[in-house]
Amino acid sequence: MSQKSPETESVDLFIGKTIFNKYKLNRKLGVGCFGFIYEAQSLNSNKLYAVKFEDMREEQFILEDEAKILTYINCNRIPKVKSFGYSGNYMILVMELLGKSLDKIFNELPSKKMSIRCVCNIAYQLMLIFEVIHNNNIIHRDIKPANIAIGFGEDNKSKYIYVLDFGLSKKYRSDTTKRHFSFSKNNPLIGNARYSSINALEGGTQSRRDDLESIGYLLLYFILGRLPWQGKVSHSKDDKYYKIREIKKQTTPEQLCVGLPKQFEDYIKYTRSLQYESDPDYNYLKNLFLSVLKSYNFEFDYFYDWDQTTLTENEINKNINMNENNYNYNHNRIPKLYTKINELKNERKLYGGQFEVERFVFDIEEESNFNIIKKRYGNRKIDEREYYDVTNSITPYSQHHKKKAKHTGCMPCQPKEYKEDDGCCLIY
């Protein structure tokens, strides 16, 4: 019997349900290759959070990897993990709720373009963020407007840029030796073809240079409103990737940045010139965008086309110092959560991925408040934290892909109604 997706139901049966005895689902925020995402409210504090669900029967296990990476990276401009656990056939990740994505903001702009001043304010922050991500030995590999967002909440969070969706991220070098993992060719494309580097489109192993090159195409898209390789007719995924790759290779930085300040051309040239194990000069890249602002008699001031208020001089100086010197946040329970997710992953594998009875959850801030119940399975003891089973008496999510497939970035089996930015391999 085929399962119906909440997308096709007249009423979303998940809305109003409570997970982990603590988070009430208010509304659906969207759908992605991992599953579905909801806004939820804490019953204890009334704070709002984002909750991701992934059906383990899809056999992708993206949320597991994302939860581990989010707890591994020490940066305050990525979503903070609140809770992670399993219920029935679903992985559940509770995390910091962010504001609108730049994809949504961009499409709401009347001109469908952003000013150079706005883009430079975004670019400078992205350089700061990715320097921290890369220093934590992680590369993102899925840079696109939908994965960059503004903050949400108090303390001027809506003025700051955040990077999200680390489901395709991975380590590029050893934590201890700092040596890069070996380079290989003929790899499937991971990420979004429109913004991917030439190396990634050619099947090369990705590293820091690929993230930075992708950011360059992202910034040019915001300024120009369109990239030269968009809108080409393709008959298959391979045909699409081939055409995008060839046009990127044939388009010089001078042609790509015609009419723009020379610093954008310098950025593309620099990132394309980096080798697999090159250490990028982040200060050089940050100064490129600061020099553009200076040439227009502007400063880095968190100015955006959709929010033209700027911070005061004291706030600007404070936040510049915060960005450069204190961009990391320290949470003494981060290593514990990372270890716990690994333990849960092992238990999930032990029981074949089915959690109709077993329910596991770990809450980073309120672990001590959980009623821990000991259960014995054979000779093994497992901690079980009781919470409401969100899948109880509810039609489960359907498999939103038409066939099971290991996640390789752009999924060829997205349903036609799914139109998220370049989500389908034949839409770009």
Question: How is the secondary structure organized here?
Answer:
Blueprint: E1 18-19, E2 23-32, E3 35-42, E4 48-55, H1 62-72, E5 81-88, E6 90-96, H2 102-108, H3 116-135, E7 138-139, E8 148-150, E9 161-163, E10 170-171, H4 198-201, H5 208-224, H6 237-250, H7 253-256, H8 262-273, H9 282-295, H10 313-325, H11 334-350, E11 355-363, E12 372-377, E13 380-385
Antiparallel strand pairs: 1-2, 2-3, 3-4, 4-6, 5-6, 5-11, 7-10, 8-9, 12-13
Descriptive key words:
7-stranded antiparallel sheet, Transferase(Phosphotransferase), domain 1, two-stranded antiparallel sheet, Phosphorylase Kinase, domain 1, disordered C terminus, single chain, alpha+beta, 428 residues
In short:
With 428 residues, the protein is an alpha+beta fold. It contains eleven helices and 13 strands.
Description of the molecule:
The chain is an alpha+beta fold. It has 2 domains: 18-97 and 331-385, Phosphorylase Kinase, domain 1 (2-Layer Sandwich), CATH 3.30.200; 102-325, Transferase(Phosphotransferase) domain 1 (Transferase(Phosphotransferase), domain 1), CATH 1.10.510.10. The protein has helices at 62-72, 102-108, 116-135, 198-201, 208-224, 237-250, 253-256, 262-273, 282-295, 313-325, 334-350; strands at residues 18-19, 23-32, 35-42, 48-55, 81-88, 90-96, 138-139, 148-150, 161-163, 170-171, 355-363, 372-377, 380-385. The relative contact order is 0.17.
Helix content: 25-40%
Could you give the count of β-strands? 13
CATH class of the largest domain: Mainly Alpha
Which sequence of strands runs across the widest sheet? Answer: 1-2-3-4-6-5-11
Tell me which CATH architecture of the largest domain applies here: Orthogonal Bundle
Name the CATH superfamily assignment of the largest domain.
Transferase(Phosphotransferase) domain 1
**Distance separating the two termini:** 34 Å
**What is the ordering of alpha helices and beta strands?**
EEEEHEEHHEEEEHHHHHHHHEEE
Could you tell me the mean pLDDT?
78
